């Protein structure tokens, strides 16, 4: 099958391990992914999460860019609601100047943490505008195309790289897909949060109506020598969707985190829905066949593979089993 495969890394901290170990393991995985022929390696953004060591993916990206040579490195993604678009543009223009042709800027709308960390990130800053406007401003700073009457039109985001960062919007709705297309950005459907085929089809259709670029699909994909080993490492994955009101939902990793989120925002009337993310797990043949099926069904040109497993040896094995490189090259 003809599609690209890439990696999403949340820098999980294994039981009994330390954040320092988790970050070193992320570098080791990125180097191995480059050797195996993966196209991109992205870092996620999560705040105040004891099990994860990646609150600043742009910092991790810079560190890994300095120690790799070919693979594209980026974020999956920067949670734009916390930051000034101008600063994000400066940061990624600088990264793209340091590593020409290898920098990806993936942006997401989610908070990446509970309200307490969101409030701490917002401390001392004026209220931010709507996400859509933030994204338009970010594109304006990156491309130097802000309208003349924009309040920050006279503040260019320098340095201006010869090869700008490639831009991606992460989402799981037709609205996000349409916004990405309108801006000329690539769209990444987050099937690791919502794997409903009907929703994937709706988002991809909205994107293709306005863009000639191919959408990407992010999904949990983990391979082991046997299906039993994969199930043992992966466990029972669940996503808990917190419904706070009409159109207000947040995805959390546990029912306890969802309840804590509602408490921190002061909402007593809420509903928690347990959902099952899209999970491709088993031996290599099973997972590859599942990716092939998704490629055929939705026309996916590139997969972003998320393996939420902390065991470094198991993650290395999964990378090898799903590697785009020929088997002989892996050996």
Report low-confidence residues grouped into runs of 5 or more.
327-331
What spatial form do the alpha-carbon principal axes imply? globular
Number of helices: 12
Please give the CATH architecture of the largest domain. Alpha-Beta Barrel
Instruction: Calculate the mean pLDDT score and round it.
Output: 92
Sheet/helix structural class: alpha/beta
Give a count of the beta strands, DSSP E runs of length 2 or more: 13
Largest sheet report? 8 strands, parallel, barrel
Write the CATH homologous superfamily of the largest domain: Luciferase-like domain
CATH class of the largest domain: Alpha Beta
Strand order of the largest sheet: 1-2-3-5-6-7-8-13
The rounded Rg comes to 19 Å
Strand fraction: 15-25%
Give the SSE order as H and E letters.
EHEHEEHEHHEHEHEHEEHEEHEHH
Helical residue percent band: 25-40%
Counted up, domains total: 2
